Amino acid sequence: MSPRLQFQGISKLFPAVRALDGVSFSVGAGEIHGLLGENGAGKSTLLRILSGVHTPTAGSVLIDGKPVTLANPVAARAAGVAMIHQELQQVPRLSVAQNMFLGHPLTRGAIFVARREQERRAAEALAAIDPSIDPAAPLGTLKVAQRQIVEIARALLDRARIVAMDEPTSSLTPSEFERLAQVITGLARDGVAVVYVSHKLDEVFGICRRATIMRDGVVVDSVDLNDLSEKAVVAMMVGRELAQEQHNSHATNKVMLSARGLSSATKVRNVSFDLHRGEVLGIAGLVGSGRTELLRLLAGADRATAGTIAIDGKAARFFSPRDAIAAGVGLVPEERKREGIVPLRSITSNMALASMAVFAPRGLIDHARLKQVAAEKMSRVNLRPFLLDRPIRLFSGGNQQKAIIGRWLAAGTRILLFDEPTRGIDVGAKAEIYH
């Protein structure tokens, strides 16, 4: 199998951080190659270099044996690289076809968009992988799995030779993953090199034969997955064997939160339950079953149309998240990048969002107190790297999640609502969050 893609000695320095250090490995034409590692291992930085978002401090990228300069995403696209992000880069209000031609529309003359021609060519690309998707339909009406397929069809339109996928199944059901796996396998049959990043090791073992394992910005090894167990791969990723977590109940008889007959304008219908002090109460259901909508009601993000909520036996009415926070309720949302963080602000600033009354009681922020508490709470959740003034967007998903949890610890929250808290998070960070 000839190398379609080669990384040779790739290094990347950011202020105070060496994100990548001499990364080298290759991916063959027609290969689905796993890229594994903890959050913060450097996987996303490497993919950003491949997609032209970052330029390497040192090293080279070769495509079909020739060095390429991926100075920006346009250059990467021209070189045959397609990137499919965990957070899809799409415009829901536009049609499927318009999204597939986003940034390079077909035109008639100088200014008119050739909409029918776009839809025809989009339909041709979709026919190869999922002909049930209507290219004229608004993208926002599609399921997440179908939106992933639209992104892959867009790569086919661009005649991509390399497709990099960053956590493509984090929001998919098992049956949706099976469909996506068939599409990815089809790409490989057509000679496309696929770089597949996922923290779901069962998926990686199912569709990848080889994988490269990274830790702390360096390559640990490139391995044949047929020769290793999942446990061995995890040990290579985290540098140690993870201890088996023992779950002991700490629940008491005291009811902290009770819900009776809760309903919403969307999916929640007549839900009742009790949550006891010290209890971890699980809420299970398929994607779209109403789990997220229920937590949004409990966190004051949405209004209930019927039913009651009580905290410590006293009726509570939440008209906004502010009301829920005041009652000691905090939400760690599923969409952390969109709803959980302020990307351009620091770890410290993000931690303080729910506690400004504590840190600025008279309108002036007590920066010394804020830094002290931030250091204490971020140490407790094991933030890595421990750079509290660094913008949170530069941290991995696992560390962003730790910062959100630290926010609620700083706020003295008594009832924590977790919505898919380990989505897109590696096994090491997952174990830490569970602990």
Shape-level CATH architecture of the largest domain: 3-Layer(aba) Sandwich
Proportion of residues in β-strands? 15-25%
Structural class assignment: alpha/beta
CATH class of the largest domain: Alpha Beta
Biggest sheet, in brief?
6 strands, mixed
Shape verdict: globular
Summed up, the domain count is 3
CATH fold label of the largest domain = Rossmann fold
Figure out the total of helices.
Answer: 16
Task: Write out the strand line-up for the largest beta sheet, numbering strands in chain order.
Answer: 6-9-10-3-11-12
Which secondary structure elements does this structure contain, and how are they paired or packed?
Blueprint: E1 3-14, E2 17-28, E3 32-36, H1 43-50, E4 58-63, E5 66-68, H2 73-78, E6 81-84, H3 96-100, E7 107-108, E8 112-113, H4 115-127, H5 144-157, E9 162-166, H6 174-189, E10 193-197, H7 201-207, E11 210-215, E12 218-224, H8 230-238, E13 255-263, E14 271-276, H9 291-298, E15 306-311, E16 314-316, H10 321-326, E17 329-332, H11 336-340, H12 347-351, H13 356-359, H14 367-380, H15 397-410, E18 415-418, H16 427-434
Parallel strand pairs: 3-10, 3-11, 6-9, 9-10, 17-18
Antiparallel strand pairs: 1-2, 1-4, 4-5, 7-8, 11-12, 13-14, 13-15, 15-16
Helix pairs in contact: 4-5, 5-6, 14-15
